[in-house]
Specification:
single chain, 412 residues, Rossmann fold, 4-stranded parallel sheet, 52% helix
């Protein structure tokens, strides 16, 4: 599709990129078959192909109706369409550009502005988020049922290993995960310690930038990225082998630092280096010899069924579909049967708050898909998915690395 950009956007950056993305779309419609919102709503405008047309029209006319923005807002940015697309359309990037420009030409209501502003100030702020979470958990019994269900139970981190190995890897504490699921990185550190790898968190590193960036606050998101680069760089110069990310939503964002900061003279080279070093913990374990941690006699006796939910960011953005399952299989985990693995759970960053009705439908579908084989536990690879699924699941929901950590502790 050829796009004639309206003069109102003449001085706007990223338009060449948007035009190229739109031109790569051949209207085949394969994306609609794997789009969660299209499958749920059956509206062309709520599928990737329809949204591409809406963005094209927006860029050509310079105006956008409230009705059209509803369809853009309903997008989960799960990027399942990118996995399906035979033409390699970078839809996730296009929807980010379209949404950001829409904020400039179509003001939101006061309520919407306040909600989005609050999310962008609370979630990335580790201290503020943890404080509010503590208050919510403390007074949970007194809260209304609807709000009570949103507050996760208290979780404690087991001890961080004291080992000091020659091999060192970095980890991102994360803004929500460090408070809501502190055992995730602690479990990761113990598993890596057993493999002779020291995992360290740099205290000055904060939010990965995804929250602000995907709420169309690009400059704030980029500032968070630069802050993290500054925090990690000394350790990278000292020889850190990888940046291990245990929340795939953050991992997907960090892997894009290089492209998002490519025009930043000061940070482009460093950002590219960090993007290449960023890996999910499953990738690290698949490249290690795990045999010292595994005792076959222990594995043979395992009968507990565990359902694994692969986050959209892990399978579609990071391209690691099947990686976690391979690791869990090595440890003898009895994986329960599931279906519609490619479909989003409805968490999608702030989506469950901004689009609660549709998010609940997608969550109900995902719970059904994950529990058809009656698992006794659900594990996932992203804190947002973990907290979201936990609001409706009748079995425990954890990060999968905690399961591996438990197996190692039992076997040893």
């Amino acid at each position: 599709m050829h796009t004639n950009i309206h003069q109102v956007f003449a001085k706007t950056g990223q338009l060449a990129e948007a035009k190229e993305i739109i031109s790569n779309c051949v209207h085949c419609g394969f994306c609609t078959a794997t789009c969660p919102t299209y499958q749920e709503l059956k509206d062309e405008r709520d599928g990737p192909r329809g949204r591409i047309y809406l963005i094209k029209q927006f860029l050509e006319t310079g105006s956008l109706t409230q009705k059209s923005r509803v369809h853009l807002d309903r997008c989960l940015t799960c990027r399942s369409c990118e996995t399906t697309c035979p033409s390699g359309v970078k839809y996730g990037r296009l929807i980010d550009i379209g949404r950001t420009l829409s904020e400039q030409v179509l003001p939101r209501s006061t309520t919407e502005k306040m909600t989005r502003w609050t999310l962008a100030r609370v979630l990335p702020n580790t201290y503020l988020f943890s404080s509010l979470l503590f208050l919510g958990q403390t007074f949970k019994p007194l809260l209304p049922k609807l709000l009570k269900n949103k507050i996760p139970k208290k979780r404690k981190a087991s001890p961080w290993p004291a080992g000091n190995h020659s091999r060192v890897m970095l980890s991102l504490a994360g803004c929500a995960q460090s408070s809501a699921a502190p055992n995730t990185n602690a479990a990761t550190a113990r598993v890596l310690d057993a493999l002779g790898i020291t995992l360290i968190e740099m205290p000055k590193a904060g939010c990965c930038g995804a929250v602000n960036y995907h709420l169309s606050e690009h400059e704030q998101g980029l500032a968070a990225m630069r802050n993290n680069i500054d925090a990690w760089w000394p350790a990278i110069e000292a020889g850190a082998q990888a940046l291990v990310v245990t929340a795939s939503g953050c991992g997907a964002m960090v892997q894009e630092y290089g492209s998002l900061l490519k025009d930043d003279v000061e940070y482009s080279t460093k950002a590219d280096k960090i993007s290449k070093l960023a890996v999910d913990i499953s990738q690290v374990l698949l490249n290690e010899d795990l045999s010292p941690l595994i005792k076959q006699t222990q594995l043979a006796a395992n009968t507990e069924k565990v359902a694994f939910h692969c986050p959209c960011t892990l399978q579609h953005a990071m391209g690691q579909s099947g990686a976690v399952e391979k690791v869990l299989a090595k440890f003898g985990v009895n994986l329960a049967k599931t279906h519609d693995k490619h479909l989003c759970c409805g968490s999608a960053g702030t989506y469950s708050i901004l689009q609660p009705k549709l998010s609940k439908k997608l969550l109900a579908n995902k719970i059904t898909a994950l529990t058809l084989d009656n698992p006794s536990r659900i594990v996932t690879a992203n804190i947002g998915c973990q907290l979201h699924i936990d609001t409706a699941a009748k079995v425990p929901v954890d990060h999968w690395i905690e399961l591996v950590d438990e197996r190692i502790a039992t076997e040893n």
